[in-house]
Amino acid sequence: MLPLKPPTEAWAILGLAAEPTLAQINDAWRRLRSAAHPDRGGSLGAFTRLKGAHIVACAYASQPRDCALCAGTGLLPTKVRGGFVTSVTCRTCAGTGRV
Ligand SMILES: [Zn+2]
Question: Which pLDDT tens digit goes with each residue over 46-64?
Answer without folding.
Answer: 999 999 999 999 999 999 8
